[in-house]
Design goal:
Blueprint: E1 5-8, H1 17-31, H2 38-56, H3 62-76, H4 84-97, H5 105-112, E2 117-122, H6 126-135, E3 144-147, H7 148-151, H8 158-166, E4 176-180, H9 183-193, E5 196-200, E6 215-217, H10 223-227
Parallel strand pairs: 1-2, 1-4, 2-3, 4-5, 5-6
Bound molecules: magnesium ion.
């Protein structure tokens, strides 16, 4: 095969993050006895994304993200009496327990297991992500998993990738591919770190920004074509 190490992003690439997020936010609103609408889910989603972008850019810290996103949501909704800390705890709990595969991603990783070493590279909370990796079955087909909270840096920071590379035996950048759905963390990070990048773009979004992916796929299994995988 053309590559023998694959770095997989998890949320939005192997697992459907939107479904897990919706489930978690639904549970939170059930607990605080407030009605939840699709508009509120969209609002939360936008706030959450903006906080993760700020974290990628180093504009907020991780603790600021974890509580700030909820403080901001409830401020915008005029619900100032909500206990943000307990909301945060419950949300993270549900997020680690709910998962939905994207395009039989688990089957794909299992098939690739004898052919190459696979690693999960994810920005997120260690406890939540570890639980999800275990429950979803990915732990058994991955050589290792690197969660930004444990690494101490987020994708696309080069320090994140330097750490990951230092943990991969016989690491060869020429034979390493990162696959992910984010141009700002996976593709930019991979490009800065000097490895080949594959943009998973099922919604065929326009490619913007300074870092263009080496490959683009609409379906996850198209990665087999890039790897020159032979059955
Ligand atoms: Mg992602």
């Amino acid at each position: 095969m053309k590559f023998d190490v694959i770095l997989w992003d998890m949320d939005g690439t192997l697992l459907d993050f939107k479904i897990a997020q919706k489930e978690a936010i639904t549970q939170v609103f059930r607990t605080i006895h407030k009605p939840l609408t699709d508009d509120i889910i969209d609002l939360y989603s936008r706030i959450n994304e903006s906080y993760w972008k700020k974290l990628e850019l180093g504009e907020v810290t991780r603790p600021e993200l974890l509580t700030g996103r909820f403080r901001r949501l409830f401020e915008e909704l005029g619900m100032n009496d909500v206990d943000v800390q307990s909301v945060r705890k419950e949300y993270e709990e549900v997020l680690g327990n709910v998962y939905e595969y994207i395009q039989d991603s688990l089957g794909l990783c299992k098939m690739l297991q004898p052919k190459c070493r696979q690693y999960i590279v994810t920005n997120g909370i260690a406890d939540t992500q570890r639980r999800k990796i275990k429950l979803s079955g990915f732990r058994d087909c991955m050589t290792d998993c690197f969660i930004s909270e444990e690494v101490g840096y987020e994708k696309p920071n080069k320090n994140y990738f330097d750490y990951v590379f230092s943990k991969i035996p016989d690491f060869d950048p020429e034979r390493t591919l990162i696959v992910g759905d984010s141009l700002t963390s996976d593709i930019k990070g991979g490009a800065l770190a000097g490895i080949k990048t594959c943009y998973f773009n099922p919604e065929r979004k326009e490619i913007t920004g300074d870092y263009k992916p080496d490959y683009e796929i609409e379906h996850l299994w198209d990665v087999l074509r890039i790897l020159d995988f032979m059955l």
